[in-house]
Amino acid sequence: MNPRLVGSLVQKDLSIFFRNRFFAVITVLGIVLYLVIYFVMPKSEDATLTIGLYAPAEIPAFDLLGEEGLEFEGVASEEELRQAVIDGRIIAGISLPADTLGRLLAGERPTINVFFAADTPQETRGAIEAVIQELGYRMTGQSLAIEVSEEVLGPDLAGTSLPPRNRLRPLLAALLIMVETMGLATLISEELERRTIQALLVTPATASDVFTAKGVAGISLAFGQAALFMAIVGGLNQKPLVVLTALFLGAMLVIAAGFIIGAVAKDMLSVLAWSLPVIIIFVIPSIGIAFPGRVTRWVEIFPTYYFMDTLHRASNFGAGWGDVWQNLLILFGFDLVLIWLGVVVLRRRTR
Hints:
Layout: H1 3-19, H2 21-40, E1 49-54, E2 70-74, H3 78-87, E3 92-95, H4 100-105, E4 111-116, H5 122-140, E5 147-152, H6 164-193, H7 196-200, H8 207-232, H9 240-264, H10 268-290, H11 303-317, H12 321-349
Parallel strand pairs: 1-2, 1-3, 4-5
Antiparallel strand pairs: 3-4
Helix pairs in contact: 1-8, 2-6, 2-8, 6-8, 6-9, 6-10, 6-11, 8-9, 9-10, 9-11, 9-12, 10-11, 11-12
């Protein structure tokens, strides 16, 4: 591989990319639009707490606890209560034993199980314990000692409130990266149809030079935009190296997909037809982060899950290398497989 030739080919690809007015405009407007979306989102999380309750016996006093900023949701079983917490539909769940009222009236100290969401702040946990104490008081008319058994469901990311716009931040960064799939795929498709790539291979440039140059050009655009966006919105304030590594591996992933799409597409319309389903599939895992409870663990079959999960945990909760190394390793493995597949398909088209 000739580094000088690769550099020249990268400059050529970037020049062709920005000569395409459509992609030149959406590249600039994409960053501006996502920045506007981010900064108009609320700076703080919703103050309303939704708490689930499982109570085999009727608890009349429970209905009296509804106040501003506090909502209750009854469930049919403790397993349903746990799942609601894991899915993010409620911030915490209270499970009352069937004999709670009788034991309270007898002066005993019943154990009440409380399930917390992984990102529940400590002050919120304290408030929920106070709710339980108030519930016991209203059930018996006197202040009683209640033993609370806490259980955190999912990875413990508690300690920090998460504003809606910070939860949305990984999704916006991912969209910036994934749009470049169409740009690179269009570039490759056009050069294949015009036989530009075949002509380059007659020169001293090898297939490795040409493919490397396109990969570098695509990754530079995708990674550069996402890194700039994350820097502006504060996504690099915590664990910047982890965040940047995740962005780089995510850029490699979508550019590999761009190689495959560009090799099978015939023109820009067919690139669009192939790209949109791929982008939708790749974005699905981020929905579970931006809107908790909308998707379940089946999204782990998508490689972008490991990208989004790493980006979310590192930028929002300060997760370090020891917390996300498995995600990064799996993501890197997907990168290698897709890059190999993309190069194989491109080689067949250039013969």
